C-alpha cells in the first residue's frame, strides 16, 4: 500500500505521494486544515498498540510531555495492510544540539518517566527477554565490524571481542539477577526528543518493560545516534554526569543496580550496538557515524568512567 492510501485511511488528503521524513521507517508529516500531524508505524498487533497507547496516555496525564494519538473520526491507531499505524500531533520546537542544559533536562525527563513506573507491568508492555546470544553470533558480529572498519583503515580494538564474549557469558547472571524493571520508552535518544524548550518525547513507540539500568545503558551508548545536530560521539564522562544530575532528581538506583552497571553496558552493547556496527555497512559511509562507532568501542573499554554519582 502506498503512502497516499495510508493517509486516506485516516481521512487525510494528499495531492502527491508523501515521502517519509525518516530513512529507516515510514514516517509522514502531514499538513491539513486542522493542523500538522505525524503518521508512523507503531507496535503490532492491535492489542500491543492499545497497551502502548494506554501507557503513553498515563504518562501524559501525569504531566509528561509525550505524544499521544490524535482524537479522530477514524480508528487511531489503525491496522493497515498488516501493520499498525498511528497519528500523532506534530510538535514544533528545536532539535538537540548537545548543550549542557539540553542534556540535563533530558536526564530529568527520563527520571520522571522512570519514577512514574509501578513495580508491576500494569500496562502489559513487552517484557525484555533478550538473553540468548551465543559465541558464534558474537564472533560473526566482530568479523563484520572488522570488515566494515577496515574499508576505512580503522582499527577496532582487539579487546572488543573479549568484552563481547564476556557479555555473552554474563547473560544468565543478568537474567537471574532480578533487577528492577520499569515501563519505559526504551528508545530514549536525542532524535526522539524535540525541545519546546523543555524536552518533548515524540517517539515512544518502542516502549517496554525493561531493566531500569538497561534503559540507562542504551541512553549512554546511543543517545547521539542518527541525529545530524548531535555530537559525533557518545556522551563524555562529564556529559554523562550532567544527564545523571537531572535523572537522579527523581530516581535513586539500588546498590544491586550499581553493582551490575558494567555488565549492563556490555549487554546492551551486545544487543543494540553490535548489530548496528555489523549489519549496517551503509552507516560506515558517513564520517560522523564512523567516529561515533570508534568512540563507542572506546567507551566500552573504559566503562569505569561512566559510573553513578
TrEMBL record:
<protein>
    <submittedName>
        <fullName>Phosphotransferase</fullName>
    </submittedName>
</protein>
<dbReference type="Pfam" id="PF01636">
    <property type="entry name" value="APH"/>
</dbReference>
<feature type="domain" description="Aminoglycoside phosphotransferase">
    <location>
        <begin position="26"/>
        <end position="234"/>
    </location>
</feature>
<dbReference type="InterPro" id="IPR002575">
    <property type="entry name" value="Aminoglycoside_PTrfase"/>
</dbReference>
<dbReference type="InterPro" id="IPR011009">
    <property type="entry name" value="Kinase-like_dom_sf"/>
</dbReference>
